[in-house]
Amino acid sequence: MGKTRTTMLVSAGMNLINVIGNAIGVFVLRAGAAGVAWPTTISWIFAAIAMTALCLSEENRVFVRFRDMLRPQREMAWRILRVAVPNAAEQVLFQLAKVVLGSLIATFGTSQIAANGIGQTLWSLPACMCTSMSPVFITVVGQCMGAGDADAAAWYMRKLTRLSLMLSTLWNALVLLLVPAILPLYAVTPETRHYIWVIVIIHNVFAALVQPFAMPLSSGLRAAGDVQFSLWSSLLCTVVFRTALSFILGLWLNMGIVGIAWATVLDWCLKALMDVLRFSSGKWREKKLI
Prior knowledge:
The protein is mainly α. The chain folds into 2 domains: 1-71, no CATH class; 74-286, no CATH class. The chain has helices at 4-28, 33-56, 66-69, 74-105, 110-123, 127-146, 150-182, 190-209, 211-214, 216-223, 227-252, 256-281.
């Protein structure tokens, strides 16, 4: 419905409960792992209750009624599952690929393992811009396709992709400038620091110039109903291409985590190329969910 401010506030409340709860559980109650686990669980419960209450509110354009929740609607359920199952499968395969790569990285030695762990934390910052633009594509393109206006959906996908590229470039440049101020927070060896710089630079450059085509544009294609293409392209790129290339570069060519970083960004390049070609072909216009 485009109510991103509402979801932002709920997310902020959830994270605030999590952070304060963790601080109390660890530093005040000294409950160890339980002091982290319980506040996290409570924050999830808070968000679940808040979002359910909001979905039941009749003030929204679209809302849920209790009496409709258990009413069987097989045709609509099938349409929903056609979107949900491929998305779920894509996420499962992505997580499995991360497990495989994690086991590979564990063989690279202490310095590289530490650098990869810190690099993963720093990578979450550059990815924020494209991650935040993905719901914009879903909302705008979904509404256009729901109205039966594929031309408007195509126009907005082009416009939002350009906007994503511009914002991502600016954001990644800013994050890269902040890295020298963030790295001193970690007590690491010079070798580890060197690896961190290398993988962060690789990641940031490609996150700025390539990821807008590989992530938000892909969300736009999903919103248009082209979920099968997104599933198979992710399967090819992330599960097959990235994993295979990680073993080739990281293990066989002895590049370590630098090889893993290159495999990751080359995966984005392939995914971006496939998404752009799919968008240009216009085949996504033929998909219809509702």
